[in-house]
Design brief:
By secondary structure, the protein is α+β, with helices and mostly antiparallel strands. It contains nine helices and 14 strands. Strands 7, 8, 9, 10, 11, 12, 13 and 14 form an eight-stranded mixed beta sheet that branches. Strands 3-4-5-6 form a four-stranded mixed beta sheet. The longest helix is centred in the last third of the chain and has 15 residues. It is elongated, with a radius of gyration of 23 Å.
């Protein structure tokens, strides 16, 4: 299998691969996916870690397409120090040799899903500011109505797209473009990090946080929105909107991207970077 589907970290071929249980088409789709290429590229920059074996355990595709949702991989990695020590004895180092030499692997279960984008919408009211949350059923956390920032992607044209984007457009007539938003993570971290990382221990996902400020909205309009968009999901809906006072956001949602965006927004305002 390794010869039919060689995988490289930089210019070095990974010595061992295991794609058992996957057909050739699925293996090719996984290896050519943006998330896999990005992860392997990142691994090539880690000078203190050596990847000796890559196992692709599962690949989840969107229905009736070749678009990858998630890839679960097991990466058997070792510290460069341990690897170099064994290399002095055995020129062709394998996982079995590292185990024989009692060199412990670095935990490497990785759930690859790639980047996403979330938007903190601040409605600049006459008396106080408000924000917009999406509410949806989230079975992973066993919640019938989980509130969080609108989540999606920035497409090739710079549009914010996805289910949340459609809901914002249809309900509030909001069509968000990257040019009209402030990249909060860029202001906070510069080039050190591309976004906030919800679960670095097991997932490659990072979320780019944006700010969109909606001005010139009357109190009457805000109140009408609050009455209409209270977060109640109808039976025929996958998602609903919820308008809440910005000052109450920290108590309304336990979602990590939501709280991260709020914290960064508040610190940037205190620092005078945002008005």
């Amino acid at each position: 299998m390794a010869d039919r589907h060689p995988v490289y970290v930089g210019n070095r071929q990974i010595p061992e691969t295991d794609f058992s249980g996957l057909d050739d088409a699925t293996i090719n789709i996984a290896l050519e996916s943006r998330m896999m290429k990005s992860w392997l590229s990142g691994m090539s920059e880690l000078e203190t870690i050596v990847l000796l074996k890559l196992v692709i355990e599962s690949v989840d595709l969107k229905p009736n397409s070749n678009i990858v949702n998630y890839i679960k991989v097991s990466a058997v990695c070792y510290s460069r120090k341990d690897y170099d020590e064994v290399t002095k004895i055995h020129p062709n180092v394998t996982v079995a040799l590292m185990t024989k030499e009692k060199k412990p692997p670095i935990p490497g279960i990785c759930f690859l899903r790639g980047p996403s984008a979330a938007v903190l919408i601040v409605i600049k009211g006459e008396q106080e500011d408000f924000t917009v949350l999406t509410v949806e059923r989230c079975l992973a956390v066993v919640r019938n109505a989980f509130p969080h920032l609108p989540l999606g992607q920035i497409d090739e044209t710079g549009d914010f797209v996805g289910r949340a984007a459609l809901e914002l457009r249809d309900s509030l007539n909001l069509e968000l473009r990257e040019l009209d938003m402030v990249n909060l993570t860029q202001l906070a971290f510069g080039n050190n990090y591309q976004g906030v990382v919800p679960s670095a221990g097991g997932c490659d996902e990072y979320i780019v946080l944006y700010l969109y400020q909606l001005r010139g909205v009357s109190e009457e309009q805000v109140e009408a929105w609050r009455q209409k968009y209270s977060g109640d999901i109808r039976k025929d809906q996958e998602m609903a909107l919820k308008i809440v006072p910005l000052k109450e956001l920290w108590r309304v949602s336990p979602d990590s991207k939501t709280l991260s965006a709020l914290a960064i927004y508040q610190r940037l305002r205190l620092s005078g970077i945002l008005s």
